[in-house]
Amino acid sequence: METSITLTVDGAERTVDVDHRTTLLDALRDRLGVTSPKKGCDHGQCGSCTVLLDGRRHLTCLTLAIAQDGAEITTAAGLADGDDLHPVQQQFLDQDGYQCGYCTPGQVCSAVGMLEEVKQGRPSHVTEDLTGDIELTDEEVRERMSGNLCRCGAYPNIVAAIREAAR
């Protein structure tokens, strides 16, 4: 049995028929042709499928598409403003925060979401001062990005890119 759902993906409203067992990742990639989120582990362990779902970072491989009817989804491909890259995207380029690039869309979406969490004052496990402004140290960035894996090991450059984008 399939049900029609509507998603706003990177600013465009899209309608798609999905089986009730279809993940959001499969709906995006296989039904809508949105290939920015990647299928890595398909178990929520690598982060390559991360998108911004209603403004918050989310693993699409763990989410049923039918539960997201009416949601707004931003992929890494939808972060740019025309030809102007999002600051996180630009810094990933400037700091060589990618190698093979497979994890990059998920890393970028997670970084954008993470920076918004910092801006809102949400502490992490390693946040020292829970009542003041959050200092975006290397340790803080690594903790907050720990759900996004990079097979190539570009972590130092990813951390540098995120810290530069935060400035």
Automatic annotation (TrEMBL):
Pfam families: Fer2, Fer2_2
Keyword Iron: yes
SUPFAM superfamilies the UniProt entry points to: 2Fe-2S ferredoxin-like (SSF54292), CO dehydrogenase ISP C-domain like (SSF47741)
InterPro entries reported for this sequence: 2Fe-2S-bd, 2Fe-2S-bd_dom_sf, 2Fe-2S_ferredoxin-like_sf, 2Fe-2S_ferredoxin-type, 2Fe2S_fd_BS, Aldehyde_Oxdr_Iron-Sulfur, Beta-grasp_dom_sf
Domain 2Fe-2S ferredoxin-type: 3-79
Metal-binding is among the record's keywords: yes
PANTHER family, alphabetized: OXIDOREDUCTASE WITH IRON-SULFUR SUBUNIT (PTHR45331:SF2), OXIDOREDUCTASE, IRON-SULPHUR BINDING SUBUNIT-RELATED-RELATED (PTHR45331)
Superkingdom assignment: Bacteria
This protein's name: 2Fe-2S iron-sulfur cluster-binding protein
PROSITE patterns attached to this UniProt entry: 2FE2S_FER_1, 2FE2S_FER_2
Keywords: Iron, Metal-binding, Oxidoreductase
Coiled coil spans: none
